[in-house]
Design a protein that fits this description.
This is Ester cyclase. InterPro entries: Cyclase_SnoaL-like, NTF2-like_dom_sf. By secondary structure, this protein is an alpha+beta fold. The protein has a single domain (4-170), classed as Roll (Nuclear Transport Factor 2, Chain: A), CATH 3.10.450. Helices cover 36% and strands 35% of the residues. It has a seven-stranded mixed β-sheet with strand order 1-4-5-6-7-2-3. The mean pLDDT is 90.
Length: 171
Amino acid sequence: MRTFEVRPGHVPYLPGLTLPGAVVTRFLALVQVTGDADAAQRLMSGIVIFHDVTGFLPRTARRTPSDYAGTLRSQLDALGDSRLVVTELLCDGDHVFVRWRRHGRHRGPINGHPPTGLPLTEMGSTTFRVAEGRIVEVWLQDDRAGLAAQLERNRTVAQVAMEQLSPLTAA
């Protein structure tokens, strides 16, 4: 097991890491926690095949590094100052498996839920395929049901708090 917190711009040294593993750890530190489009261009192929295997109907999409970075920046904005923790990183040939948790605060809209400022934890795993030193394919699995439950709980907590404050602000 290789557990570590991903810090923006800090590529961790992990002894015995394969070349694909090194590409992915660079990607995590330079793109995944920052949304840096230039770093995405350097570490991803011109078109990356993304398999979203979480949903009821799994889907596959072709994405450019700049598309990916833009979507990622929106997600990072919604979670405020978040922390990404890798709880498992395994390499096998050209594939790299990463199990992760992202902790943040709900600072922007997510799936129609307005920001509450309350904590959120997103969990999942991603498998990357690396060819010629660049990420060419990604399989994403994340706990959408768990995130939806947290968003609903936070909405309820925020609503109750507002109702409790209403009589105080009316006086």
